[in-house]
Specification:
Elements lengths: L3 E6 L6 H7 L1 E4 L2 E4 L2 E4 L8 H9 L5 E3 L3 H13 L3 E5 L8 H13 L7 E5 L4 H6 L1 H10 L2 E4 L17 H5 L1
Amino acid sequence: MSRYILSCCSTADMDESFYKERDVHYICFSFLMDNILYKDDLGKSMSLDEFYKRMADGATPTTSQVNAEEFVEYFEEFLKEGKDILHISLSSGISGVFNSANIAKQQLSEKYPDRKIIGIFLPNTYSRTEALFDDFVKSLKLFDKAYVMDISCDRERREDYPNINSQKLVD
């Protein structure tokens, strides 16, 4: 039996077989459509065909990130089993979900001091990384370990931000 689990949010947008074949666990975002709240649960609450049909008919869904309380409940299930967690999250540049996972990690660290929650962070723009640099650094320090991917942005030029890179976030 593995001592850790791989985890991500439903926003990874893979079908359920992808998760099952690789033993990847996921936590669901929510979306509101036609004044009804649904889980982004890979088409179980609403089929993907129905989802896109409603959009074509004029419905406008809005998403809701996973909050810290939901992460506590989700993470704790694995921590109780004595497992560490490697969680891949959306970039904090497009969602606050990375911060929600951090808050949950902090709340659970006292109860499960021997367990680790490791975060993977993808900064999505140079300008946002520059503007929120100190906040990102603080947030990354909350995880037991954090891996930071290279900044990947098609709409900004790397050379316009010579002092901003992912390595500086972890130094």
